[in-house]
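Let us practice reading a record.
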Amino acid sequence: MDYAQQQRSWGRHAPSILAVIALHILLGWALVTGLARRVIDVVKAPIETKIIEEIKKPPPEVPPPPPPKLAAPPPPFIPPPEINIQVPVVTPPPTITTVTTVKPPPGPPPVARPTPPAQPAVRKEYKASYRVEPTFPRRAIQLGLSGKVVAWVHVKPDGTVSDVEIKSSTNNIFDREVVRALSQWKFNPEPVGFVGEYEIVFNLKD
């Protein structure tokens, strides 16, 4: 018998055919009993997923900073050598002194300076270069009063009056007018100021 006839023999392929038929019967039974649906339900069940975090690598180690450079210490102090210089001693020349026993001639006699005449402490009725006469007070005219006032006029070196001082008065109604008038008087300038005494008489005529 040749090889082609051996392959066409039914008995040789019977086990394979029976296995295929059994598999189809098993699948038909599974469909009828619902086994296939359970398998599909199992497959349809939610699948849990987990996110796995990536493991981070540790940062590379930073090398420590280099040690600071220390400056070199300064060199030790070496004092300069002492140099002794001899200073020559200079002797001064001898001083020649002469002693004379002859007295010098007398000098001229001192010249006496003329002393200015002493001015009195208070000048009475000293003439002024500019005068303002006091006016009779209207109140005194109304009252019919007469009077007399003695006043001191303090004069500065430039000739102006710095103050008028009432020394005596028969009635103070005349004092204000005397002060007003004498404060405007002018005198010739002098090196030193002075005080002048003046008597002002207020006589009411008929």
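A brief commentary: The radius of gyration is 75 Å.
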